[in-house]
Design goal:
This protein has 5 helices and 2 strands, in the order αβαβααα. By secondary structure, the protein is mainly α. The protein has a two-stranded parallel ribbon with strand order 1-2.
Length: 92
């Protein structure tokens, strides 16, 4: 973990945060084990898409064009989770 992730985890612990925003895989693992719930960029994008604030696929593609590294397997997992939640909403 780099300095930023360590600082985010320290602050989350200090203030007893309900949620910490992290993308680094190691930092996410530490946060889940020691602190609190974790959400990353893709989780935020999925939440915004569920609220109809943006298009999930277009936004992920735009993030990838910026050079942001996104684990493709994780992108598929989040996309599938997003699709399932959207389908459940339609059937209600």
């Amino acid at each position: 973990m780099d300095f930023g992730e360590r600082q985010a985890l320290a602050l989350a612990a200090e203030i007893k945060a309900d949620l910490v925003l992290l993308d680094d895989k190691v930092a996410r693992r530490v946060a889940r084990r020691e602190l609190t719930k974790v959400k990353g960029t893709l989780g935020i994008v999925a939440d915004a898409a569920k609220a109809n604030l943006l298009d999930f696929v277009e936004t992920v593609e735009a993030l990838q064009r910026t050079g942001m590294h996104l684990d493709q397997e994780f992108v598929r997992e989040i996309a599938e989770e997003y699709k399932r939640s959207k389908n459940q909403e339609r059937t209600r």
